[in-house]
Amino acid sequence: MAAWLGSILGVVVVGVVVELLTQNRRMGNFIRSIYGFIVLLVIVNPLPKLFKANWWSDRADSLIDAEMLNNLTRTSRQAQVAQVLRVNGYDQAIVTVNDDVIYVNLGVKIDEATLNDLQKTLGEEVIII
After folding, report:
1. Are residues 68 and 24 located together in one domain of the fold?
2. Which DSSP state fits 121?
3. Which of 50, 64, 94, 109 can pair with 105 through a Cys bridge, CB separation 3.0 to 4.6 Å?
4. Which residue has the higher pLDDT, 57 or 18?
């Protein structure tokens, strides 16, 4: 938009200078006609770009970018949880993140008493299967 206004201003300034330099009446009319045509071209120049613009592709690109960002965030969260589990000695843990829920498959076999203790400790926030 700024470039378009700048080009209009530039054409007007050049037209004024050329008008001041031409003294001949017949030549002045010819130059004014050419100048009017050039001003018209400069003003109409951005219109084809507006009509060619595909508004839906811009929307689709932003949706794809949002999906890529979600996938990147999900992958990052999976990596963080897996790293914490590896540090704590769970090398075979399988971590899956869906939306805001993190699923961890530790592959650990525990007896029922330990399972009851874990559920009491962790509460209803964690489901142990």
Report:
1. no
2. H
3. 94
4. 18
Do 35 and 89 belong together in one domain? no
| Gap between the Cα atoms of 106 and 2, Å rounded | 59
| Phi (first) and psi of residue 89, to 5 degrees | 95, 10
Within this chain, do residues 39 and 71 fall inside the same structural domain, yes or no?
no
Burial of 46-65, coded b for 16+ CB within 10 Å and e otherwise, reads eeeeeeeeeeeeeeeeeeee
Residue 119 scores a pLDDT above 80: no
Judgement on whether residues 39 and 72 belong to the same structural domain of the protein:
no
What is the residue-wise DSSP string for 55-98?
Answer: HHHHHHHHHHHHHHHHHHHHHHHHHHHHHHHHHTT-TT-EEEEE
Backbone angles phi, psi at 32, to 5 degrees: -65, -35
Contact yes or no for 104/118 (Cβ under 8 A): no
| Structural domain that includes position 39 | 2-52
Model pTM score? 0.37
- Asked if 47 and 74 sit in the same domain, the reply is no
For residue 103, give the H/E element and its range. Answer: strand 101-105
